[in-house]
């Protein structure tokens, strides 16, 4: 083989599309075609200066010293193959890899391979870095895509104007972004993919903390992302302390309303960190028994021990993969690090454990490998040990983390201990208030890989490190004070006084970012018997749980907090109960909602306070409306409105007027609905409440549709859509698109109507939204008209065009459409 190019190198990967099918169809003739294919490609690559790095089966890996040469080779390769039965996908990516005795090392190799794998036969895909070197001629921008290596999105370009199916990427999944591609573990990855594909319903990856279970499970899920019709969902359970919350956490991650909604779906659920909630195993077993299309991929330090389970024990890296992993991680802080016997010995001393290797690799920034090995000689024999009933690998991991901890000076040890009170991620401001640390402390812990910056000024402590740091905190005198400060800081966030309307949306985003910390604060309050703090947190956070659809979890917290604080002040209890009613209604739990509404009514009578009575009447009205008992709901909502009018409480007046409008829509009294929703809208606008105004206009649009007042319906729906799109309110985007599809249909623009309905249907499926009765009637009616006026194939094509739009494209199209 010729000498491999170094410095800036462009990698080219090829792969034959449908090789298994071709072998089956062509039999022995396929071998001859494959040989001819290889000859043609090798000729082309050589002509353009390419060096063949590797060939596996029908795939090539070629390196080029110049990006233009690689692009020319790709174009000529496709031309050389012509229209023959063998169609090849090609991917190009440029980087600065490290050349070793074994070949190239670095993430650029992985990225190039992933770009090629995202394409289709006859297609040439080009990364941003290659495009920057070759220019834009003949390249078409396909946008940003998440590849199956799970790292940050890559902007991908296509050579030529050919038409191909959508790229095989991860743009519609909740799998988290990883900091780097999977290194090693290819044998395990193949085994696990085969196990899941062979029909196993529950596969549990077991192993010690820090052995790489989560990263491997994520890669398995990514590889399977296009094999499950209803999606692949990541369910992190590390912060779920109660096994009864495993099912609600699955529901939230999968975007369904209840666990039963999964029974008819074809999904893969990747359940991460199950070891501390093993008592949920029976619930998972029941889910599998009732759901033919559900498969589970779990990570745990212990098996679940149920009949459907296939256990996959994950061992440490073999020596060669450990060295590859260590070198790649070390080169992020020291580009000139090379593989040698010292590095190999470091990896052996660390037992090939991924977390241990990652921590050690970060030290080469300040310690040369020989010095690092010397430190290991001094520390590991002393620190390896622990309980004899603990697996040896876990003892070694504990020793490695302890070794990292002991290398810190005392102020940084204190900082690490205190920062362990945070659950999930945390902001620098919160770290300064709770842990009483400074920016320099956080920066130093990041340098030692004990904290990870994740963007937007937030940081993450790995759970295995956090477990160790929490043990150290428990032995320190400031443990309880740190936890109390943590609860106080996050109670302040939950109860933040939002003086301006626009602050509500930013507050929702802040709470979302610190949701795990707020959960931890609730758990601390419950454990410490701080019932009033627990109820204040639950009452304050209920609006967030309602707005962001954490319905089951929110209701569980509200109910527990109410039970724990039976002597709460009437105002606080009433507020918590009111949100409880809303959370129940949205889930269809009318029985629980009724009990809560009755309790609010009793509190109102006990207090004699008009504001408590008005809240009770409003929530009873909401429940009755949901139950379609409109004649009973209207007088209660009217009484609530009258009380708020007497005190000129415009915020609550707006809510009551909107709810009365929904009663009128339900009764098909559309003129009255328009009057009530217009009054609500005027108040929303006067108060500067954009979200409420968007909601008022959206529902008023359906009232206008009921009267065939199409221009007014279109104006309202577009106004609502503009706001809903800007604040990221997917539900109201979908509602507005249904209304605008009906408007377009009235204007005889059948294609526009169908496309908008296609997008609305996609969004509803994406967030598992069930349209309310009046919207569902409009949506179904529009579909029926289209089916009667368009050929079946044409309608299907138009709906798919709409589904293929991005949200931005759909909104632009919807706002551009008009009856004028």
Short summary:
With 820 residues, this protein is an alpha/beta fold. The protein contains 36 helices and 17 strands. The protein is globular.
What order do the helices and strands come in, and which of them pair?
Blueprint: E1 9-16, H1 19-26, H2 29-47, E2 51-56, E3 59-64, H3 67-81, E4 88-95, E5 98-100, E6 103-105, H4 107-117, E7 124-127, H5 128-134, E8 139-145, E9 154-159, H6 186-197, E10 202-206, H7 213-223, E11 232-236, H8 246-254, E12 267-272, H9 281-290, E13 294-300, E14 309-313, H10 319-330, H11 341-349, H12 354-362, H13 369-383, H14 392-407, H15 410-419, E15 425-427, H16 428-434, H17 439-447, E16 452-455, E17 458-460, H18 463-474, H19 479-494, H20 503-513, H21 515-527, H22 531-547, H23 551-564, H24 570-587, H25 590-607, H26 610-626, H27 630-646, H28 650-666, H29 670-687, H30 690-706, H31 710-726, H32 730-746, H33 750-766, H34 773-789, H35 792-804, H36 807-816
Parallel strand pairs: 4-7, 10-13, 10-14, 11-12, 12-13
Antiparallel strand pairs: 1-3, 1-4, 2-3, 5-6, 7-9, 8-9, 15-17, 16-17
Features:
820 residues, alpha/beta, Alpha-Beta Plaits, Rossmann fold, 7-stranded mixed sheet, 5-stranded parallel sheet, 36 helices, 17 strands, globular
Structural account:
By secondary structure, the chain is of the alpha/beta class. Helix content is 59%, strand content 11%. Among the domains are: 9-159, 2-Layer Sandwich (Alpha-Beta Plaits); 186-313, 3-Layer(aba) Sandwich (Rossmann fold), CATH 3.40.50.300; 319-407; 410-476, Arc Repressor Mutant, subunit A; 705-820, no CATH class. It contains 36 helices and 17 strands. The chain has a seven-stranded mixed β-sheet with strand order 2-3-1-4-7-9-8, with helices on both faces. Strands 11-12-13-10-14 form a five-stranded parallel β-sheet, with helices on both faces. Strands 15-17-16 form a three-stranded antiparallel β-sheet. Helix 15 (410-419) packs across helix 17. The radius of gyration is 30 Å and the shape is globular.
């Amino acid at each position: 083989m010729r000498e491999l190019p170094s410095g800036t190198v462009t990698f080219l990967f090829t792969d034959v599309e449908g090789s298994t099918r071709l072998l089956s169809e062509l039999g022995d003739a396929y071998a001859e075609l494959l040989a001819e294919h290889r000859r043609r490609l090798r000729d082309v690559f050589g002509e353009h200066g390419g060096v063949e790095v590797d060939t596996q089966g029908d795939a090539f890996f070629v390196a080029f010293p110049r990006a233009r040469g690689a692009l020319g080779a790709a174009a000529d390769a496709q031309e050389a193959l012509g229209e023959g039965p063998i169609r090849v996908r090609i991917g190009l990516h440029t980087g600065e890899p490290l050349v070793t005795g074994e070949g190239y090392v670095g993430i650029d190799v992985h990225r190039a391979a992933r770009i090629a794998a995202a394409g289709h036969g006859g297609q040439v895909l080009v990364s941003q870095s290659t495009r920057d070197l070759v220019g834009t001629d003949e390249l078409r921008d396909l946008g940003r895509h998440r590849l199956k290596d799970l790292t940050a999105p890559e902007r991908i370009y296509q050579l030529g104007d050919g038409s191909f199916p959508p790229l095989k990427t991860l743009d519609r999944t909740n799998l988290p972004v990883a900091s780097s591609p999977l290194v090693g573990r290819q044998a395990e990855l193949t085994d696990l993919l085969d196990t899941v594909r062979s029909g196993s319903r529950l596969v549990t990856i077991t192993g010690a903390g820090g052995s790489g279970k989560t990263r491997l499970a994520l890669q398995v899920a990514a590889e399977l992302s296009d094999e499950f019709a209803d999606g692949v969902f990541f369910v992190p359970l590390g912060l779920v302390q109660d096994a009864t919350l495993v099912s609600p956490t699955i529901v939230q991650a999968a975007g369904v309303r209840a666990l039963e909604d999964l029974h008819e779906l074809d999904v893969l659920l990747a359940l991460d960190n199950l070891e501390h909630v093993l008592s949920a195993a029976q619930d998972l077993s029941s889910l599998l028994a009732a759901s033919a299309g559900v498969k589970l991929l779990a990570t745990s330090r212990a098996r679940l021990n149920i009949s459907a389970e296939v256990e996959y024990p994950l061992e440490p890296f073999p020596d060669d993969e450990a060295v590859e992993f260590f070198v790649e991680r070390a080169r992020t802080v020291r580009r000139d690090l090379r593989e040698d016997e010292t590095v190999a010995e470091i990896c052996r001393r660390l037992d090939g454990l991924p977390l241990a290797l990652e921590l050690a690799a970060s030290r080469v920034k300040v310690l040369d490998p020989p010095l690092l090995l010397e430190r290991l000689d001094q520390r590991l024999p002393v620190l390896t040990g622990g309980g004899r009933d603990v697996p040896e690998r876990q003892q070694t991991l504990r020793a490695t983390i302890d070794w990292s901890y002991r290398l810190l000076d005392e102020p940084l040890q204190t900082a690490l201990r205190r920062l362990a009170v945070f659950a999930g991620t945390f902001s620098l401001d919160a770290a300064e208030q709770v842990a009483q640390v400074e920016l320099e402390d956080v920066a130093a812990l990041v340098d030692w890989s004990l904290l990870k910056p994740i963007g937007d000024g937030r940081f993450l402590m790995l759970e295995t490190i956090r477990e160790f740091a929490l043990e150290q905190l428990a032995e320190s005198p400031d443990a309880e004070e740190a936890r109390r400060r943590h609860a106080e800081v996050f109670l302040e966030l939950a109860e933040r006084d939002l003086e301006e309307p626009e602050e509500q949306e930013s507050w929702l985003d802040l709470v979302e970012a610190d949701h795990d910390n707020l959960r931890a604060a609730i758990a601390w309050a419950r454990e410490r018997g701080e019932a009033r703090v627990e109820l204040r947190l639950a009452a304050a956070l209920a609006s967030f749980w309602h707005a962001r659809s954490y319905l089951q979890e929110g209701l569980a917290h509200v109910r527990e907090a109410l039970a724990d604080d039976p002597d709460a002040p009437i105002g606080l209890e009433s507020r918590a109960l009111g949100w409880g009613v809303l959370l129940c209604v949205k889930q269809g739990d009318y029985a629980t909602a009724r009990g809560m509404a009755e309790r609010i009514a009793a509190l109102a009578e006990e207090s004699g306070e008009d504001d408590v009575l008005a809240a009770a009447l409003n929530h009873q009205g909401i429940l009755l409306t949901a139950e379609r008992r409109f004649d009973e709901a209207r007088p209660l909502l009217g009484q609530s409105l009258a009380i708020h009018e007497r005190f000129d409480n415009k915020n609550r007046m707006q809510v009551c007027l909107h709810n009365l409008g929904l009663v009128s829509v339900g009764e098909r009294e559309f003129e009255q609905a328009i009057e009530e929703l217009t009054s609500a809208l005027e108040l929303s606008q006067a108060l500067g409440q954009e979200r409420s105004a968007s909601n008022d206009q959206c529902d008023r649009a359906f009232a206008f549709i009921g009267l065939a007042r199409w221009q007014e319906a279109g104006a309202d729906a577009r106004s609502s859509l503009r706001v809903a799109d800007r604040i990221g309110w997917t539900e109201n985007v979908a509602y507005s698109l249904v209304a605008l599809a009906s408007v377009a249909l009235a204007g005889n623009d059948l294609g526009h109507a169908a496309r908008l309905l296609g997008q609305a249907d996609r969004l509803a499926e994406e967030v598992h939204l069930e349209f309310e009765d009046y919207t569902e009637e409009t949506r179904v009616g529009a579909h029926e008209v289209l089916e009667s006026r368009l050929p079946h194939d044409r309608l299907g094509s138009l709906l798919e065009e709409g589904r293929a739009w991005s949200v931005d494209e759909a909104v632009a199209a919807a706002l551009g459409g008009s009856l004028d």
